[in-house]
Amino acid sequence: MADSSIEEISAQLESSNLRDRMVALASLRNVPAEDAVPLIKKVLDDESLQLRSMAIFALGVKQTAECYSILVQTLETDPDYGIRADAAGALGYLGDIRGFEPLVRAFYEDTDWLVRFSAAVSLGNLKDPRAHEVLIKALDSEEVVVQQAAIAALGEIKDISAIDDILRFAQSDDWLVRQRLAEALGHLQSPKSISALKYLEKDSHSHVSEAARISLQRLEAEQ
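Below the sequence we write its predicted structure tokens.
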């Protein structure tokens, strides 16, 4: 992108009008990461939580060497739980395996369920088998969405040893939990998975039965 356009975006990010700043930040999607990140940093402490959230997400997409440390610091120190959750999510997008430890700490230590939810999702995105223990613990969360995230993540990391732990959700009252289970089992090649998916294929909710059908096809194709 031309230097003049970068300068224009930079100036717009300092506008007193929130809409101008949001438009400027959004326009960075087509700017190379090395040019975009310095501009994203300008609004990381913006008075608007919505803009800060957008900026944090952008750091997970526009990846440079400094994005990791910024996101970890935000995850560990920001007073706003929504921003901490955004940082946890962005670490998953970033895909840097160094994010494993900060995400595990966030899951165990953060007091807000939304942060723990984002941490569980991102641990799945990292596809690190070391996440087994924390994700098994997440299955016992009082928050259903955290359970959903854990089930999905265990599938993402292809944790065959977790099959028995997640099969207890096959008769969950929440159809989204059953759908996440059906999707996760599609990554876990096992006779138990196939048997459970044939059961879920008859589920009364169409989203669950369809997810089970697709997962069965995937497992059969891999055999």
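The radius of gyration is 20 Å.
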